[in-house]
Each structure stands twice: as structure tokens, then as C-alpha cells.
Write a structure and sequence with these properties.
Length: 246
């Protein structure tokens, strides 16, 4: 069984059953674990005709690469990979597009947390380059706590070209960079928008940065020079939400 074909963790498995039950092939639960939420998942799986097996914790540990599976793991059909064409189709159908661009984020925990942020903020999707970036992995789905099932992840071949296509559709792209002179809280984030965040260690690549319409920084008062990309993305997304609601 390929690692890409599994989903583990209560939130992640619950989300697949809720949003895409047809993708679930079979499910394993930890033997002897008495948990109301696990019982509810088993009942839901049965309603969709999903076979459920019990396994020792050690077996689940091995299947999930010793991940925090919370006593449940499912084998699923691969999710359809979304590309630039799918992204532009969505843009055409959306009145006020709102996206998060992640330039070269390779840590699955960060991508999972960013998907969760995007879901909470009501973003229409997350855009990542196909190469040199993490995609949807079991760990990403686990960390996303269900958001990976509802927030589209668009993996594009050429990020700079995709950004230009978004701009041609009237979407303003704001890049986040610690050295930028413009203050995030003084930046207009109310219209059709994409917020671009850089990788964990290098920030925005040159072409990505040059492709942004403006660059803004999060005001920092302490001694640290930067924030984790998932934390920074949450701040930027919800500043946009605040402005849109005001």
C-alpha cells in the first residue's frame, strides 16, 4: 500500500467520509480503543459500505509512518490533482476571488496548517508550484484537520505565469516579506486578492516577488526576525478578512 493512498487521524478520516465517501476503500481502527468518535466513524463507514478492520496499534503506527493516527486509518483513492486550468475555471465562477499562494513550502506540517488557515478564512484555494513544494500527503491531511478535503490545492507548473494569469483576471497579488517597507495593516486587501507567502527558510523567490503587485510586512516588535509561514499566513489571511468585513 502506497503511503500516498492513506489518510489517518480522526479529523482527516471524518472529513473524507463526509465530503468524499466514494474515495474511501477500507478503514482500520485500533483494537481495544474505546472512543465515542471512533465508534461514530465506524458507524458512518458502515453506512457507506466501507469495510472496517481492527488492528493492533503497532500495525497502525507502521502504516502511518508512526504518525499520530488517533486510532484510525483509511485507505483512499487518490484525490484529483488540480492545475492552472482548474484554478482559472474557478476564478471565472467566483465574484470576489481570495487565494493563498505558497512559494516552495516543503514542510507538510506547514502546508497542512496553511490549508487549515485558508479554510478558516474562507479562501477559495491554495496555490503551490508543482516542483520543489510539498503536495497532499497523509501528514498534510492529518495536520489540516479536514481542511484538505474542502480547500482546493492547485499545483501549477509555472508559478510566475499563473500569477500573471490571475492578474489578467483582475486579482491583486500582495507578497509578504519581512524587509518590505509597507505595513500589512495599511495595505488594501479588500478586492479580488491573492496573498503570496515564501518558503520556510528563503522567503519569496525573486521571480515570485517581482510578480507581486505590492509587498507588505507584518510589523514585528520582539527580538525574532521572522514568523513560521503558517503563522504568518494566518495573520495575513485574517487581516484581509477583517478588512473585508469592516
Amino acid at each position: 500500500m502506497k503511503k500516498q493512498d492513506i489518510t489517518f487521524g480522526i479529523h482527516a478520516v471524518e472529513a473524507v467520509l463526509k465530503h468524499s465517501p466514494e474515495r474511501v476503500i477500507e478503514m482500520w481502527v485500533q483494537a481495544g480503543r474505546d472512543d465515542q468518535r471512533l465508534t461514530a466513524l465506524v458507524q458512518t463507514a458502515a453506512e457507506f459500505g466501507v469495510a472496517v478492520q481492527t488492528s493492533a496499534r503497532k500495525v497502525l503506527d507502521e502504516k502511518s509512518d508512526n504518525g499520530q493516527h488517533q486510532g484510525v486509518l483509511a485507505r483512499v483513492k487518490p484525490v484529483k490533482q488540480l492545475n492552472e486550468k482548474d484554478l482559472l475555471t474557478l476564478v471565472e465562477k467566483t465574484d470576489m476571488p481570495f487565494f493563498l499562494i505558497l512559494d516552495g513550502v516543503t514542510d507538510p506540517h506547514n502546508l497542512g496548517a496553511c490549508l487549515r488557515n485558508a479554510d478558516a478564512a474562507g479562501a477559495h484555494g491554495v496555490i503551490v508550484p508543482r516542483d520543489n513544494s510539498v503536495g497532499l500527503t497523509p501528514t498534510v491531511s492529518k495536520v489540516a484537520c479536514g481542511a484538505a478535503e474542502v480547500v482546493p490545492l492547485f499545483q501549477v507548473t509555472n508559478l510566475a505565469r499563473t500569477m500573471k494569469s490571475l492578474q489578467d483576471k483582475g486579482i491583486w497579488i500582495v507578497g509578504a516579506a519581512g524587509e518590505a517597507d509597507s505595513d500589512l495593516y495599511k495595505t488594501d486587501l479588500k478586492g479580488p486578492l491573492a496573498i503570496a507567502m515564501g518558503a520556510e527558510d528563503k522567503g519569496l523567490r525573486r521571480l515570485t516577488r517581482e510578480g507581486c503587485d505590492s509587498i507588505a510586512s507584518i510589523p514585528m516588535s520582539g527580538s525574532v526576525s521572522s514568523l513560521n509561514v503558517s503563522v504568518a499566513s494566518g495573520i495575513c489571511l485574517f487581516e484581509a478578512v477583517r478588512q473585508r468585513l469592516s
